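[agent] plan:
  1. take the single chain provided in the ticket
  2. run structure prediction with default settings
  3. attach structure tokens to the ticket
  4. add a short note for the reviewer (M.T.)
[agent] executing step 1
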Amino acid sequence: MNKTQMKRFIMNKRLAAMAFVLLIAACGILLFTLSAHNAKAARPQILNYETVQVTAQDTLWKIAKEHYVEEYGSLKDYIKEIKRCNSLSSDYINAGSSLMVPIYAVISTEEK
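[agent] step 2 finished; step 3 output follows
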């Protein structure tokens, strides 16, 4: 092997080693992300509905913020779900009316 071939050989080995390290890092990140998602999804949950009386000071956003938990995804997704449950086509709600609000109750699996 001449000097040029030896330099190429060493450079190729370094590139292969860096690619391997990046692959291992990407797999670690993926496994961490999936395990965190599965841990959150593995918590037993019950979906219930609560009736909320709308007051003059209430907005759909305010009611959603009061009942929001992570299980709904984003707050916007939760507002869409409230609107779907109540057949609302806009964010406008009337004082004196009642809304059905979905509530997730997480079942505790810890012993006391």
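[agent] step 4 note for reviewer: The two ends are 71 Å apart (CA to CA).
[agent] ticket updated
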